[in-house]
Specification:
single chain, about 500 residues, mainly beta, 2 domains, ten-stranded mixed sheet, 6 helices, globular, disordered N terminus, Lipoprotein
Length: about 500
């Protein structure tokens, strides 16, 4: 709800989650989520920058850094004015971190370097893009981590309405939405590509495409892993597996960017069986999986689940009502029952006839994300049956999913189209056809402009599991994160 700190509550319980410190020592930088003391934002007010420390290079113009001294930062329950930019639709997330929580991996700078053992960290974000992290020392002092610069700030007063109209006598930038009209835009696109495993089974490899449009030029870079943005920063996904006592088990390591990658085998993987999993969807807070558990895998996954990222190692999915509310259950149940009624008596004997509200995922269909459910078998080696629902993914699952060029028009122009995406600023379209990705400009009439401005070959059978957009200054931020992390991985 706008005007209140957004507290991440793990579904149906309060969970403790671990985020990566610079060395990722297990259990030493545990992060706790706690509710606010009252309805007011504790960091609301007028703050003044006293000193700064550069922690990340190339994220803020060097010639302008000294100008940050004595600048004012204005924070309200739904707006932020920082560095002469006004953000009007701000959400906040609160967490409590310990001393070895890493603020900057590049500088190996921890919370303990601030002279404290633990601290409240409030992340301010606009449209899923992080504006800053505020490390609150007390009611009048704190540190703001903004674009690679750690600003020491002191509270000098309360806020007034005019603080979000103009400040410091400088030109005012209305909000991040203005930047969205910039021609600069980019998307991190996650793909899964079918491959044959050593045992001859069908598996998947995962990769990220970083597609950006800047200075009238398209650039596409790829990485052999998943890099995805969250409100807490960039994260990674790496597929892992174990093979013990003749049993193969696949899982995924999900970590904050630059966290040391570990084969953190979930406890739930113990047992004499094979486990095959693949990713269907990656969002800000959830990852959708499909799974097979048994000893005769033939490339079919009889179960879906949606796992919260912050407790991903639990390998446990949440119910649909935990993301919506229990009023969604009859809608899902009706779709389940309709598909069940289409099965013949022999098919019904081999499946679970009871609706499972955890058995769902997100998939792409006609240029949009849809929620798909599954009727699972009583034995993993029997057939399962998918069914579409009439449930539209909400903001807890998908932050942005708009096609500025209608699907019917795209399909009419390109009968072989498989998927489509358009940028939030309405200037760029990405079209997927068999074996190829096409980038188009969009004209003022919301139509594709001429021929593709870029063509990119895709692996056969590649499927999109993630598409996260940015615009304006965030194109540079994301590009830096992508390039620096890829370089680090290649050097290891």
């Amino acid at each position: 709800m706008r005007g209140k700190i957004v507290i991440i509550l793990a579904i149906l319980a309060i969970f403790i989650l671990a985020l990566a410190g610079c060395e990722r020592v297990p259990g030493t930088n545990m992060l706790k989520i706690k509710p606010p003391v009252n309805d007011d934002l504790s960091i609301a007010g007028e703050w003044k920058v006293e000193t700064y420390k550069v922690l990340e290079n190339n994220m803020y113009p060097k010639g302008d850094i000294n100008k940050l001294i004595n600048k004012k930062i204005y924070i309200s329950d739904s707006m932020v004015n920082i560095d002469s930019q006004i953000f009007k639709n701000v959400n906040y997330k609160l967490k409590v971190v310990e001393g070895n929580y890493c603020i900057s991996y590049q500088s190996k700078y921890n919370v303990s370097n601030l002279g404290v053992n633990n601290v409240n960290v409030i992340t301010a974000a606009d449209k899923n893009n992080v504006i800053f992290d505020f490390f609150s020392i007390d009611s009048t002092e704190g540190y703001v981590y903004y674009r690679g610069i750690l600003l020491k700030v002191k509270k000098i007063g309360d806020i007034k309405d005019q603080d979000f109209i103009a400040s410091d006598g400088e030109a005012n930038i209305n909000s991040l939405s203005v930047n969205e009209d910039s021609s600069e835009t980019g998307v991190l696109m996650g793909l899964k590509v079918p491959i044959k495993t050593d045992s001859g089974k069908t598996g998947y490899k995962y990769m990220t495409l970083w597609i950006n449009y800047k200075d009238n030029k398209v650039n596409i870079h790829e990485a052999p892993y998943i890099l995805f943005p969250r409100m807490t920063g960039m994260w990674t996904v790496f597929p892992r597996y174990t093979y013990e006592n003749g049993f193969y088990k696949q899982f995924f390591d999900v970590n904050p960017l630059n966290g040391k990658q570990k084969d953190n085998v979930p406890k739930t993987l113990d047992g004499n069986y094979n486990l095959y999993q693949s990713i269907n969807y990656i969002g800000n807070d959830y990852i959708g999986l499909e799974t097979y558990k048994g000893n005769d895998f033939k490339g079919e996954y009889p179960y879906y689940k949606m796992v919260p990222i912050d407790i991903f190692s639990s390998n446990k999915g949440v119910a649909l009502e935990d993301i919506y509310n229990n009023q969604i259950n009859p809608v899902f149940s009706a779709s389940f029952q309709s598909e069940l009624n289409n099965l013949n008596p022999n098919q019904k004997k081999l499946v679970d006839n009871n609706v499972n509200y955890k058995n769902f995922t997100l998939l792409r269909q006609q240029g949009k994300w849809i929620i798909q459910g599954k009727i699972s078998p009583v034995n993993d080696n029997y057939p399962s049956y998918n069914f579409d629902t009439n449930i539209k993914p909400n903001a807890n699952l998908v932050k942005y999913d708009t096609l500025y060029v209608p699907w019917r028009l795209l399909r009419a122009d390109m009968p072989t189209i498989e998927d489509a995406y358009t940028s939030p600023n309405g200037k760029l379209a990405i079209i997927l056809i068999k074996g190829e990705l096409l980038v188009y400009k969009i004209n003022n009439n919301n139509k594709l402009e001429g021929s593709p401005i870029f063509r990119y070959d895709l692996n056969e059978g590649a499927k999109v599991i993630m598409a996260e957009w940015c615009s304006g200054d965030y194109v540079t931020y994301w590009n830096t994160s992508f390039e620096e992390y890829k370089k680090k991985v290649e050097e290891e």
